[in-house]
Amino acid sequence: MHVLIHCTLLLIFAAATCANADTLEEVTKRGYLRCGVIEGSPGFTSLNDDGERVGFDIDHCKTISAAVFGEIQIEYVPITPHTVFTLLQGGSIDIFPDGATWSFTRDTTLGLDYTGVYFWAGQGFVVRRDSGVKTVADLDGATICVAQGTTLELNLSDYFDTHGMQYTPVTFADADKGLQAYQSDRCDAFTNERASTAGRIAGWPDRDNHVILTEVISKEPMAAMVRQGDPRWRDIALWSFNVQIAAEELGINQGNVDEIRAHTENAEAERLLGLHGDLGEALGLSNDWAYNIIKLVGSYPDLWARNFEPLGLERGLNANWKDGGLHSALPFR
């Protein structure tokens, strides 16, 4: 789930001793990646019928593992919005791929680093189809369920104050409890990140009786997080995610990567796939690290098709810049 976690200043830089650690060395010696995941959000993190973890965030865990090991070697560590920052600071997890909204306060106070925006989220509302609510303006005077202590709660307050609207918040410890309250008619609307909401309500028996409004009240740049003070590990995370954006721009995907690797004459594709240059060496990785990411996990469109198309989600802001979106690859040279 894309948790828009409010910066509770409970983080007192307890991880100062971990900040200088070489995470790549630790992960390599351990033999597997410790990846923190917030469970129970179809499309992002969930279990399939075979009991396997699947989702966009799970694929990001696999991306880092593919880059480091050339195979999938992961321990998934269940976390909550209230524990993730301290667990990451303290070294109990190596990366939080689900990430959080990249904000000034978080970036400057948590002792953690962001690793590049991989998902552009937007906060929206789900309402009952027969409520007559068509736009956010129609929620003036409404009772709204929201997760407590999150940027969702702050965005809600800011938006309604700015537009001179009234509302009554009903707060809960997490999104699931808020949705349960909405289902029980304790509020007129539930607010959350739109894609996360779509995944969570996809299996409702009465799904057709609910509508996710098309309007959003915020733009939320989501980025994976790592401990501060370990620039090589941050670079590995940033450039591993960037591989999947670059692959899309170069027309490379999980299905054709071997053919392109064998026949491409594109210089950047050759560098990306490890045919020329030593990009992997600069990160402390093998030179086929990016090839392994695409082969084992896929390009950004592969991830989107696998996890979000079944939910009916269009890419929107998450499209490549060539298609009117916000994603643009950093050059591999």
Automatic annotation (TrEMBL):
CDD domains: PBP2_BztA (cd13692). SMART domains: PBPb. Residues 32-260 form the Solute-binding protein family 3/N-terminal domain. One of its GO terms (biological process) is amino acid transport. SUPFAM superfamilies: Periplasmic binding protein-like II (SSF53850). InterPro entries: Bact_solute-bind_prot3 (IPR051455), Solute-binding_3/MltF_N (IPR001638). Keywords: Signal, Transport. PANTHER family: AMINO ACID ABC TRANSPORTER PERMEASE (PTHR30085), AMINO-ACID ABC TRANSPORTER-BINDING PROTEIN YHDW-RELATED (PTHR30085:SF7). Belongs to the bacterial solute-binding protein 3 family. This is Solute-binding protein family 3/N-terminal domain-containing protein.
